[in-house]
């Protein structure tokens, strides 16, 4: 079974309902900039490494939802 990438609104909903956190709260709790958290949730920041990866791992730990981009995305995959 493969896990699909979670939609940003789903992530925000789960954070809010199960943990009482907004993206602003999550950013403050993790010591991150709100924009970095928002970009990661919306898929603008790829979350493959660095700060985006830290944020994605924390979100997955809290919600069980994957915000990282799939490694093999079919049509979006670029040739090496």
Got a strand count? 0
Counting copies of identical and different chains, the oligomeric state is single chain
Distance N terminus to C terminus?
27 Å
The total tally of domains equals 1
Computed CA radius of gyration, to the nearest angstrom: 13 Å
What spatial form do the alpha-carbon principal axes imply?
A: globular
Uncertain spans, ≥5 residues at pLDDT below 50? 72-80
Q: What structural class do you assign from the helix and strand content?
A: mainly alpha
- Reading the helices and strands in chain order gives HHHH
The major pleated sheet works out as:
none
Helical fraction equals: 40-55%
Helix segment tally: 4
What number is the mean pLDDT?
Answer: 81
Tell me the β content. Answer: under 5%
What would you say about this model in short?
The protein has 80 residues and is an all-alpha fold.
Task: Set out the fold topology.
Blueprint: H1 8-19, H2 23-30, H3 34-42, H4 50-63
Helix pairs in contact: 2-3, 3-4
Please, could you describe this protein's structure?
The protein is mainly alpha-helical. The chain has one domain. Helices cover 54% and strands 0% of the residues. The chain contains four helices and no strands. Helix 2 (23-30) packs across helix 3 and helix 3 (34-42) packs across helix 4. The N and C termini lie far apart (27 Å). The model is unreliable at 72-80 (pLDDT under 50).
């Amino acid at each position: 079974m493969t896990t699909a990438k979670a939609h940003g609104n789903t992530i925000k909903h789960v954070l809010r309902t199960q943990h009482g956190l907004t993206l602003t709260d999550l950013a403050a709790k993790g010591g991150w900039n709100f924009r970095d958290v928002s970009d990661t949730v919306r898929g603008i920041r790829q979350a493959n490494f660095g700060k985006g990866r830290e944020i994605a791992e924390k979100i997955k730990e809290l919600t069980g939802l994957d915000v990282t981009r799939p490694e093999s995305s079919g049509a979006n995959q670029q040739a090496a």
